[in-house]
Amino acid sequence: MMSKFKKLEEILNLAPMESIEDTTESTESVEQTIENEQLTIAAINNSIDLIDAALPMVRDLDASDAEMDAIATLATDTFTELVALSMNVEPRFSGTILQSASTILGHAVTAKIAKMDKKLKVIDLQLKKRKIDQQSEKLAEPPIDGAGVVMSRSSLLKMILEKNQEK
């Protein structure tokens, strides 16, 4: 029977069976890792709760949209009026008026861009919150019941050989 062990050890390039001992260090490290993960999850949940508590304080998001639209509309109307004015004045003054009109039109574009950026940021925050909610739901599911055994590879090989001999 010992020759079978030597053959298997040589084939798989394993250490001799006598030199391997069972240890409980792996179970202790697994327990420590589980505790660390639980502490990390608790910290993340606390952060999420703080963010959720802060969100209701944000108000008047629609009001800023209306303000940005009003600024853009005013700037566009003013641009149109300045262009019309520049056509009715002497050419030496129209350059300055058109330059001012161009600047005002830039403000209209900036207002529209700021409005869109704000909407995109809100959507991004909603997606991130949903992702975190899904992850926390996934972690909150009950674990699958199972059993595990910590053993050395030598004892595992011994069990496999015994089962093969029974057949």
3D architecture notes:
The structure is a single chain. With 167 residues, the protein is an all-alpha fold. It has a domain at 60-139. 79% of the residues lie in helices and 0% in strands. The protein is elongated and about 110 Å long.
List keywords for this structure.
single chain, 167 residues, 79% helix, elongated
Number of strands: 0
Structural category:
mainly alpha
Order of helices and strands: HHHHH
Main sheet: strands, sense, barrel: none
Shape, per Cα inertia axes: elongated
- Mean pLDDT score: 76
Question: Gyration radius, to the nearest Å?
Answer: 36 Å
Question: How many helical elements?
Answer: 5
Short précis:
The chain is an all-alpha fold and 167 residues long. The protein has a domain at 60-139.
